[in-house]
Specification:
271 residues; nucleotide-binding; EC 2.7.1.113; P-loop_NTPase; deoxyguanosine kinase; Deoxyribonucleoside_kinase
């Protein structure tokens, strides 16, 4: 009897009939981000994708790094072990006027580090359509969260100018290594996101209000639907976006999960 992994692989291959283009004998790995409001269901959706096809590699959002800022001496003989000195995510929520710029700087750098990680060997040797999927990206860090904090007055004009300057420099320097070829936009009403946020009970998010989620929803709509956000990278302006209705309970509905996976496979096959 075929193993579970073989069945998944066969199913994936049937849905993705076209071969991935290659360079130097290696498969071209597509890069896609999952975007959406806080608590819209990105992590749940990411786990769904990871289990759906062996040609897909999901890179989780580095939340744990934001919650555990490490301090200590540099590595070397006799160096003290690094210890957690602060929870930057919590600090940002508790005092956004003081910590928003610091948080957005660190979150963007951690996202950049994630997007620069090379794809695993199994994706490079794939005969299907290999895809690296990121929970959010260096682009949503700037055009959703940092921009929102600037518009709220939590990041001042000087900080915003500095942030945009180094963000543009780094993205331009790393070029195709951090470019995306597609975006999956998980869309749900802010009230639904608020309900899910309260249900998951993340300690740092206790003070998050519906108005904040409303503003983030508007930022997502401006960037990914209305296309009115000022974007500074030509390729990102034209990037294809797959919208999925995340207001449905896809985690508990097998039929909806199957519909989502089918739409995602078709989307990936067009990139």
């Amino acid at each position: 009897m075929a193993s579970k992994r073989e069945k998944i692989s066969d199913s994936c291959s049937r849905c993705l009939s076209s071969k991935a283009s290659t360079q130097d004998g290696k498969a071209r790995v597509r890069r896609v981000s999952i975007e959406g409001n806080i608590a819209v269901g990105k992590s749940t959706f990411a786990r769904l994708l990871q289990s759906a096809c062996p040609d897909w590699e999901v890179m989780a959002e580095p939340v744990s790094h934001w919650q555990n800022i490490e301090g200590g001496t540099s590595k070397g003989t006799g160096a003290s072990p690094q210890t957690t000195v602060s929870n930057l995510l919590q600090m940002m929520y508790q005092d956004p006027l003081r910590w928003s710029y610091t948080f957005q700087t660190y979150s963007c750098m951690s996202r950049l580090r994630t997007q620069l990680q090379p794809p695993p060997a199994r994706l490079l040797s794939s005969e299907g359509t290999p895809v690296q999927v990121y929970e959010r990206s260096v682009y949503s860090d700037r055009y959703i969260f940092a921009l929102n904090m600037f518009e709220l007055g939590c990041i001042n004009s000087t900080e915003w100018a500095v942030y945009q300057n180094w963000h543009s420099f780094l993205v331009e320097q790393f070029g195709h290594q951090v470019e995306l070829e597609g975006i999956i936009y998980l869309k749900a009403p802010p009230k639904k996101c608020m309900e899910r946020l309260e249900n998951r009970g993340r300690a740092e998010e206790k003070g998050v209000e519906l108005d904040y989620l409303d503003k983030l929803h508007v930022q997502h709509e401006r960037w990914l639907v209305e296309k009115t956000t000022e974007i500074h990278f030509e390729k990102i302006k034209q990037i294809p976006v797959l919208q999925l209705d995340a207001s449905v309970e896809f985690q508990s509905d097998p039929e909806v999960r199957e519909q989502f996976i089918t739409k995602v496979k078709t989307f990936f096959n067009t990139l």
